[in-house]
Each structure stands twice: as C-alpha cells, then as structure tokens.
C-alpha cells in the first residue's frame, strides 16, 4: 500500500534494537482516518474469502482490526494477554507467545464463547516480524477447530522471515508494507 | 442510546462482584458495526465542541475510541498501562490509576509527543464506575496543559457516582447507557 510506505518513510524512526517506531500514527497515537483506509484495503484483499470473524491480540492490534472489521462487517475477537477476573480457565483457549519487544513470554487467551468450528478467521495485527503473535493466534484458532483464512498485517519486517515461513506453510499473509531492510536506518520496501 | 440499553438487557450478564459482563459485543468480542453506531452517536453529541483529539486507555477503550474518531475525524491517543522499551521516562506524562476489576494499581502513560497545550481532548472509555480511569486521563491532559472537552462512555454505573462527581466538578460526561441499579441481577437504566 503506497500510502503506508510513504507514511513510514516520512514519519517512521529506526531505533537501536531493530525497532521501527511508528507511534505517531499506528501504535500510540492512531491516525484513524488513515487506519480506516488500511482497513478498507484489507477488506478489498479478503473480499470473497468468506471471513466471518477477525482475531487480533490486545492492545496495538485492536485499532487495525476494528478498521478492517468496519469494512468487512464482521465481529472482532481480541485475544487478551493475561487472564482477568472475568474469565475462568476451563472456558479458555490459550497459547504461549514470546515478545521480543518486551523481552518476555505471555499467555494469550480467548474465551471459548467466541470461537467455533464453523468460523473462518482473519488474523490481524499491526506488526509481523518472526511471527510469534501470529503463531499464537493460529494455535488458538486450531484449538477451536476453526479455519484460518489468512493474516492481514500493517507492517511486516520481511528480513525476519516470519511472514515468508507462514506463506511457505500455506497460510495467506497480506502485509500492507513489507520492509526488506532497515540497515543503517535506511528503509527498503519489498517490490 | 436505546439500542445499547436493549443490547445490555439482552446479552449482558450480572456477575458476583458488581460485574456487568458485556464481552459478547464490547469487551472481548467486538460487534464492530454496532460500535460504529455508538461512535456516530458520540460524534453527534460532541459535534461543535471543538474536539481535536481523543484520549483513551488500552486495551478495552481503544475500539470505541476508534469508532468515535472515525466519525469525528480526529486522531486517537491511547494511554499505555506500562512503560514499554520504546518509551523512556522523561518523555512521558503519567498518572496512577487503581483498577477495581483487576484489584491493583497501574501507571498510565502518554508520550509528550502526542499531547499539546492547544489540544481539546475528548476522553473515551467503555466503562465508568467510580471514575478512576477518567481521573487518570484528566491528570494527564492537565499535565500537558491541554483542555478536556468532556468524556464519552459506553456504559456508566450511575450508582457508583463517578460520573455524577465529575459532572458536579463541571466536566461534561456523556454516557450512552447509565445503569442506576443492578440489584439481584435486575438492570435499571437512568431516565
């Protein structure tokens, strides 16, 4: 998506530790009009794929998931990162995910009330690097006996190969921008 | 908002510990078409109020904030609940908030990059009970020297008086549904 690539070049900051900071429009402050355009593009890509539900992980995936769902007219389920007092264990699907950003493991949980074998699920997230969050979501969809239609990502770090590994495994992965290199702070997109 | 009251009566579950569970459309699974209607109503209520930014707190406030912002055409800033490795302390506004749901205190933080003295901020959240989250957001807006235009809430527990205390303090609080009693699992809305 050309507009996203331009936005990343204009506002993204490459920080030490392989971090691309886009908190001005995607992560901390949200440019909602622009997010809705990204959601529209995701809906265009997955039109006709039979998606009836979107799954994402709190917190930074929620906004893009809502934007996509507003155009696909399907509900969003967001996996939670910790069990809350409102959810008890035997009613949950869960997976263990390692976060490189926060340097720790966490559980992602989804209530069994909200995923069924007949669901055709689109996975949505803001970033894709090695693919840990996506693998966690896929595990949860599999636990529910539901089907993964594919994944829609805002920004994929192509050089970390998480997306390509999933594609090689037969999963459709659509990223609105794929970065093939950020060496020396210079961002190169995949063509 | 009549449609929200009807939805709460139809799907909401009153659980021990004064919990209203609406995770089927607002908290864990999101009915995005319905959320967009709520966002449209918030935009109608605050049309002409000069709002140029929405502030919410991750994670469950984000979806409603995005829905409101999509109709008000302003950016959303979401306060984060823990400092991440992407943010360093001297660049932050922060406030301490007590969560009764999770029975703990947490910090909410907003990068100084995203709030300015000239901002006119609408606070958005899914629930309002005693008002701790709103007070935390107001403290952050005050730290930035910005102005609070008001708050927009999906569900207010009116009998906990957080909303009325804020109204008495001169802050505009618009809740799409105000519950005045949940005794014995019977939900009574404010007229």
Task: Describe, in plain words, how this protein is organized in 3D.
Two copies of one chain form a homodimer. The first copy, chain A, is α/β, with parallel strands linked by helices. The first copy, chain A, is built from six helices and eleven strands. In chain A, strands 5-4-8-9-10-11 form a six-stranded mixed beta sheet, sandwiched between helices. In chain A, strands 1-2 form a two-stranded antiparallel ribbon. Residues 83-87 of chain A have low confidence and may be disordered. The interface between A and B is large, with 42 and 42 residues.
Give the amount of beta strand of chain A, in percent.
Answer: 25-35%
Number of DSSP strands of chain A?
A: 11
Question: Helical content of chain A, roughly?
Answer: 25-40%
Number of helices of chain A: 6
- The pLDDT mean of chain A sits at 94
- Most extensive interface between two protein chains, with residue counts: A-B, 42 and 42 residues
Separation, N- and C-terminal Cα atoms of chain A: 11 Å
Question: Secondary-structure element order of chain A, as H and E?
Answer: HEEHEHEHEEEEHEHEE
Largest sheet of chain A: 6 strands, mixed
Q: How would you write the strand order of the largest sheet of chain A?
A: 5-4-8-9-10-11
Looking at how many chains there are and whether they match, the oligomeric state comes to homodimer
User: Given the C-alpha coordinates, what overall shape of chain A results?
Assistant: globular
Q: What integer value in Å does the Rg of chain A equal? A: 16 Å
Structural class of chain A: alpha/beta
Poorly predicted runs of chain A are: 83-87
